[in-house]
Amino acid sequence: MARSPGPTLTSVTPVLIQQIAMVRQTDALKEDELLEVTAAIQKQVTRDFAPLWDVDATVDPFLSLDRVPVGYQRVLVMDDIHREMAGAHETQDGQPFALVTFREDWDTLASHEVLELLADPSLGRRVAGDSLDPRQGRVEFLVEVCDPCQDPRFGYSVNGRWMSDFYTPAYFDPVAAAGVRYSFQGSIREPRQVLRNGYLSWRVPETGQWWMFQNTEGTEEIVQIPAGTIPSGGNLRGHLDRYTEGGAVARPRRKSVPRRTHARRQYQKAQSAMKAEAAALRSELRRILGPGAKR
User: Fold this and answer.
1) How large a percentage of the chain has pLDDT more than 90?
2) Ranges of the chain whose pLDDT falls below 70
3) Distance between CA 46 and CA 64 in Å, rounded?
4) What is the CA radius of gyration of the chain?
5) What does the domain layout of the chain look like in residue ranges?
6) Which of 66, 120, 176, 179 has the greatest count of CB atoms below 10 A from its CB?
7) What's the pLDDT at 240?
8) Cα 117 to Cα 150: distance, rounded to the nearest angstrom
C-alpha cells in the first residue's frame, strides 16, 4: 500500500522585528505619561505605519537605560537637550538612537523620531527620484518620513496623544495619480510635496552635493547645503538634523493647534470612562478573590 504524503511545509520569509525603547531620562516625566505616550505610538506603528511601510515593530517604555535589553533602538526623553543635539544619532559602533526634548509637545517629537527610525534604521537610506530642481535630473532623496509634514498642524490624535503625520512610500512616485495616499493624513497631495515648515533633502550623484527644498511659513526655496556639512556615508539624517536645527530651516512653533486642543479635551472626557472601567474590574476582583485580596 502506498503511503500517503505527509504535510507540506510552506516556506515563510522571516520578518525582522524592530524593537524601540522609549527611555525616561528626566524625573519631570511621570511614569504614567511615559506609558500612555508609548502605548499611543505603539498603536500608531501597528495600525497606521506598519501596513504602509511593511515593518514589524514593538515600542516599549523603560524607566532607566540600565534596564533596556540588548538589541533595542533607544529613544531618550531628556531635559536640557541643546537645540542642535535633538534628533538622530549613532554610537561609535554604528547603533542608532534618538534624543527627544521633554516639553509640552514631546509626544509628537517622540512619534516623529520613532517613525523615522523604523523607516530608516541605518540613518542614511536614500531613494532615487526626479529632483525638485528640474535642472538636476535624477537625484537621491534622503528618507525622512516626517520632515515634509512635520508641522504639528498636520498631526493627528491617537488615544488623545498628538502623533506626527508621515509620508507613504508613494511619496517618491514619479507623477501624481488619483486615489493615491501620499501621507497618512492626506495633507500631502502629490509626490515630493513639502508642506508648511517642512523640508526635503537630496544628493546630486554627479557632484556629490546636497540640496534642500524648504518651506518656511509658506515661503518656498531650494538651497544648496554648504560643502562639508554632510559627510559622505554614516549618519546622514543626524547631520541634516543638526543643520536644520541650527537655524537653516524655521522649526514649527510651539503654538496651540486647534485639533491638538480638541484631542486633549477628548482625552480628558475619556478619563471618566477609563476610571469607570477600572472601578468595575476592581469590583469584580473583590467578588472573585475576596475583599482582602491585593489588587
Assistant:
1) 62
2) 1-15, 83-84, 231-234, 242, 245-266, 269-270, 292-295
3) 25
4) 22
5) 17-248, 256-288
6) 120
7) 74
8) 15
Query: Which pLDDT does position 295 carry in this prediction?
Result: 57
Map grid coordinates 509658506 to a residue: 218
For residues 37 and 39, what is the distance between their CA atoms, to the nearest angstrom? 5
